[in-house]
Structure prediction request, 498 residues.
Amino acid sequence: MNHRWWPGTIIATIIVASVSLGASAQVAGIPEGFTRIFNGKNADGWHWSRTVHHGTTAVAKVIDGVLTLEPHPYGQGGLLLTDKSYKDFELYLEARPDPGFNSGIFLRSTEGGSAYQIELVRPGNTGALLGEQLRITQPKYLGARTDINTVWKDGEWNSMRIRMVGQAPHLTLWINGTKMWEVETPTNDQIGGFYGGMIGLQLHWTSTYTAGAGGLSMGLPWLVQRFRNIAIKEIK
Amino acid sequence: MRGLLMTLAAPVLAAVALVAQAPTLTNSIGVDFVLIQPGSMIVGKFEPPVPKSADPRLEAMAKAAAQPGFPVTVTRAFYIGKYEVTQAQWKAVMKTNPAIFQGDRVTDDADRHPVENVTWDDAQAFIRRLNALEKTDVYRLPTEFEWEYAARAGEDADTPWAVIRERAVAGYNAFFSTQMVGSKKPNAWGLYDTQGNVWEWVQDFYNEKLFADPTPLRSGKVHVLKGGGFAADVKNAIPATHAAGPGSKFDVGFRIVRDVKP
Prediction:
């Protein structure tokens, strides 16, 4: 995909972003000092994983400045990855998943989808720190944790801000401006001891290719995931 | 009369051709091969199951998306690696070792782990040098259909997950490095690690679709990967999975084919 940012693209993005922000007053918008990594017009700078088990043929559409991710074909999800890798950063984005949609924000992901993950599913464990094809050593929570049900607004835009710093990462999550948790992890759990990786937006699979595998099928394949105002601040 | 003799002789000659080849062989650098006989399979069958007592819209959507697949016939016998190419075999040919999982990243014999962190072009370089070493031209990557035919080993349906777990170095949060080749059960034709351990390069270009087309592409941007690596899940560590590069590098390797010369 084309990575270049033409002036026309930037102008269009600003207009779209202003309209989008005006429609939902509860989210603060991209913080100062962050750089957009979704341009509001197309998926330049992102690509689908071709090896993740969730699927390899999902569809990314940009509708009114919103990145809309749809499973395709029936039951096959995917993982939309940044072309660029990051080590230490703060990530900001706004999400409006269909209730029942199983998704997640992948951090320091490999191409195949081994990553730290912030779970994103309602009703469910939204905001939980998980390992996807990666075993996270028991982290130490610093201070109190906030109940997701007190901050998340189903059917509306919700802002997520994630800070990830250090080879054994120190992670902090804010949702809609409220600090949800802060953890220290004792080790770097990335496979092979690598440090850094891509940002990924997950669409969990909902069906196998055939019933032969055991017929497991879950979720509703017409649900979609939506993101907007995705931006990052690298911490050098 | 002569026509009758030819008619009678044809199956006999075919049978001779089949038994004339050793069922297994080992080459100069210790690659073990298994002879794969010609045959047919269905590729690209997509019949996604729907949960019982589900919303009725699910069944209609699943039926609309279903594809019967298409028949593929492998017309010539070929030898294929019993295991993925190992680090020892790579070193014997290339005098280098690009693998991530060696040294203190493994706790056993890295030489017996599959080589990984190799591109499709790297795999081709290995094959060229191996052919040169043995002064032959019989070695190559399998085509996607040859690979899938050998990996299925006569199984037309997707493998049940319980069986995959017996065969595959793969599974959700189950493995975090390659394992020595042959650590799990083989498939019905005696091939190990066709599911899991490392993704395997095949000759074909990727068509950016869920499955291969009946006629492979003649050009493309990336090549197809098959079988899943150690960080794959039971959902995609199956012969039907039609994936593509670059993969995560540390779980991308290959196995080779040796042509049967007449």
Observations:
- Confidence is low (pLDDT under 50) at residues 1-17 of chain B.
- Residues 37 and 51 of chain B are 38 Å apart (CA to CA).
- Residues 2-20 of chain B form the longest helix (19 residues).
